Amino acid sequence: MTSGLSLRTTPIDGLLVVDLPLHGDSRGWFKENWQREKMLELGLPDFGPVQNNVSFNASAGATRGIHAEPWDKLVSLMTGRAFGAWVDLRPGPGFGTTATVDLHPGVAVFVPRGVGNSYQALEDRTTYAYLVNEHWRPDVTYTAVALDDPALAIAWPIPIADAEVSEKDRNNPLLADVTPMEPRRTLILGGYGQLGRALREVLPKADAVDLDTFDMTDAAAYAAVDWSRYDTVVNAAAYTAVDAAETPDGRRDAWSANATALVHLAAVAAKHRLTVVHVSSDYVFDGTRDVHDESEPFSPLGVYGQSKAAGDAVVATIARHYVVRTSWVIGDGANFVRTMARLAGDGISPAVVDDQVGRLTFTADLARGIVHLLDTRPAYGTYNLSGAGDPTSWYDVAREVFVRCGRSADDVTPTSTEAYGEGKVLAPRPRHSVLDLTKIEATDFVPTPVSESLDAYLA
After folding, report:
1. Is residue 67 annotated as a catalytic residue, yes or no?
2. Of these residues, 104, 119, 128, 130, which one is catalytic?
3. What range(s) does the RmlD-like substrate binding domain occupy (predicted)?
4. Per-residue confidence (pLDDT) for residue 414, from 0 to 100
5. Could you say which of 87, 186, 283, 429 would form a disulfide bridge with 206 (CB–CB 3.0 to 4.6 Å)?
């Protein structure tokens, strides 16, 4: 009988051995084969099992594998003894690494997706069970490797030539002929917008869709996607026409894209254990505070901000989520900086609002920060992410652009929000949009100073 629950690592990254306490008496024994709370605290991934499979082996020598299915599993014995062997069949430096474990009812092994799994029964009537986090489907293909490949040098207790092995497993390829199992991918929603294009630059292996191929507001669109191919979704899609959102049609479209669509995404994320990165906005605040941190309650002024706040609340229900809140986004399309540069070139001297204060965020820096979160995986939650440096008004930014374009800063004149909006239908805007960057900086991400990004952008 084992004495206590404990966790051991192996030479294969992510392959973990769990020692299970067996509580026995004259009648037999009892064990907690999967106890989510205890095992997560121990360090086992929260892999979300959905199916339990049992393989009964009538005679010692029954040998199965080596198979790497596209899901995680937790294997253990109910009766008997076995010799377990695993091979890393994922791409990367660990490819071909092996690990072996003596299996008995007091041991379980967590096998991550892409690691080849095999075992050999050492006693008659050995019962092998495994939890998996995807339902079996007849169309699933998997990677396999030969049990007796000399390159693996697995020391089977019963030589494979003498073991009971299926004809299919006897014809598995040698490691040298195995194509590593493709890892799950990242899907970028809104992949052809300003931020989406920047994300595709830093996530070149990601898939990207936009409204023409995937309508986030249509529940049926989600059912058409093979979500087993993905482990991460980055949502760069949104309705961003702030002023148009105040119209009847705009109000409907803003809520549909920024809130209702995320209900569909959250349901898919829960079902398929996806990590979701969702881009938020300073418009979820009313701007009465000089600086906004991640704990500030929502207080949106207009329809756009209200719909974004609702979407943020939905995303917060996803177990693995990063809400990335940003402000004053500048990308490779039409934007404030480009407009000011054009006006400077055309000899126009504009009046620009000087009572809205914030920091520009360039899409390249925003995309870099998102990749940093996905690479380092800090605690899930909300992270502010904007350009760094002293806060400025739109008027200050316009003056900087004019200077960089060879015009005098004095060619830009200040005006108030009220004066600028006279005669126009404009949505209310927060007067203070400065985001506190302390939390993202604590993850060792260094936001680029706005002045440096502006120089590069206008170069």
Report:
1. yes
2. 130
3. 185-458
4. 97
5. 186
